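User:
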Amino acid sequence: MSSQPSSSRSAKTADGTNHHPAAQPVKIVTADPGAIGLFGLAIVTLVASSQKLEITSGLSYVIPWAVFLGAFAQLFASIQDAKHNNTFGMTAFAAYAFFWFGMAGSWLIKLGVFGTALAEAVDPKQLGFVFLGYLVFTLFMTLGATEANKVLLLIFALIDLLFLGLTFDSFGIAAEAFHKLAAISELCIGIVSLYGCGASVLNAHFGRVFLPMGAPLRIFKK
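Assistant: Predicted structure:
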């Protein structure tokens, strides 16, 4: 039984030279991971802000959501954004994912899970330096968000306020006022992120602007 030559093999032309067929580009399409990343951010900030606002008490039920929604959901979104060649989204989701890993670990230490020696040696000013670093990072990312959409810009502006409040609270500077600022900002982050998640999903699902996200400001990009 004879077989036909594969179209991917070289074929000889009339003059005896080999002819190589042109390579066909392959496009791999993946879904936008922004919605699941925003959902993770929304849930963890809602539950964490409820504790700061004293609507709820304790950290026992905050920790698992910090790990699985705040950390793993955003880390997944970061990895997917890297496949989209989206440096901004990849960096933002990864940075905040590892923040929540770190916060969950810090809370476990504070609660004595890893022993009394670690719990008794806790110095909140060390977290203050973490929050200060994240504040500077978020200010840079806020500049980038001006060229994304207004919902994302608002989220980053609220995160700026959150880290501002957390920083001063940790250093003991007007702690009560800045703790309140952090709590309210965190609650607002959760609400706006839920909207951003819903808009991202429904706009893609319906193929049109179902829930507006707001056009970029076009300050740095023309």
